[in-house]
Amino acid sequence: MKIQDIISPQPLMEAKGLFGRKAGDIFTDDNGEKARFEEIKMYPPEGETYPDIKSCDAAKNEIEKKSGIKILWANAHRPNLLAFAIARLTMEDGNTMLWGRHYQSVPKNPIGTWGNQDAPGTWSLQTKSAKKMKTGLTPQDLIATEQSFSNPAAVISWIENKGAPAEIVDGLNQLASGKLPVFQGQSHNLEAIRDYLGEIMQPIALMTGMVGADADLARKEVLKKPWKQCSVMWPQAKNTNLVDSVFSSKTGATLGISSKGASGANASSANIWTAITKAQENNRTDLLTEHAKMIEIMKIINENSAIEGPIVLGLRFNIITDKVANEIRKLVQDEVSDTTKLSPQAKKLFSEYGGRSNVSGYRVGYVLLATLAKKVSEYVNHIPEFGQGCLEFLNQASILQIYTSAKVVGTDVHITGFNAIYPPEYSGTVYLDAGKNYFSSRIAGKISFKYVPQKS
Which of 5, 44, 167, 405 is 20 to 30 A (C-alpha) from 73? Predict the structure, then answer.
């Protein structure tokens, strides 16, 4: 597998695509907006093509005129494309959105000709994980606070007051009493209960003494107190990396609980930097010396803003000059959308990836910064010591990995056990991933990290 395939995986085209969508299917964009799919039609309604480009354009203009809605096109229009499809969606606020795709001619069977991933802008079909998230069983749904809880009863009372379903509360009460729970009538929610509710169940199981062995080792080594003398909180950012909950003792010691572990949860600069700090406190001069270059890169990412991080790294590795760096800073600040005044060097950078100018909020500075972040990430990811160093530090971090096993019995979900691993066993590698937070319309955060487990 090529490194670029890991860093920027290409989505697989679903066989049915937009022409196979059902009314009510949900699409989301990278701003969290939702749109409900309504219908899709091919034009011309009869025949294979319009007679010429003028007639084709006239038909498109007529649709926009009658609907009063500007069509968002998924691909560019060329003279040989004399047919098109229009998809109609309804936004959460009730407004209608029209998507269009140009065709050379009306296909005999349009199924599969317009992939779900080829929607305009950043719209994409809601994924399986997104649907699982919709069940409302995440800590962000059921806990929705970063306050700490000192015992299972307090956690369950809080969840019940938040309006959790009775069968969920009943299962958690079974767990708090020291029994492996059964969630009645929840067979359709197996994955959500195991993966998302599991992030809540695991700390309760720890507090009730249902998880031993490595869990006890982590508690004794890190917290140095019994579970019952510690409190737990759930970070509320939905993209929290590696750690899903955090135990704290009265001495200030903290132990992160990772409910995903080696199944692919991503690392973060905070995770890795905390591990580096722990190595410094423990005088791990072997790690600190061996991975000095990786630490330097992490320090730049950790100590600089989302804007300055890629710029400083770009300068560090001679990817850009000081002149281009200052040009990017000014363009980001001024929020311009005109490319005519770019320097030759900036124009070259701009053209490497570009950006969709029809995206709301499109800005030249954001495109340049996003491109630079991708180039920096690609450069760093070709330094073998970087990913290896990240893993070595993570594997001496104060993180306890726990897995929840579950099965369906009839219409119920049975939790069959919890398995703990400490010290953590992250095997594979860590990559920088600029595609997650840098867009042509905004900056969502710093360069992120992608943890890719080693295949067994």
Answer: 5
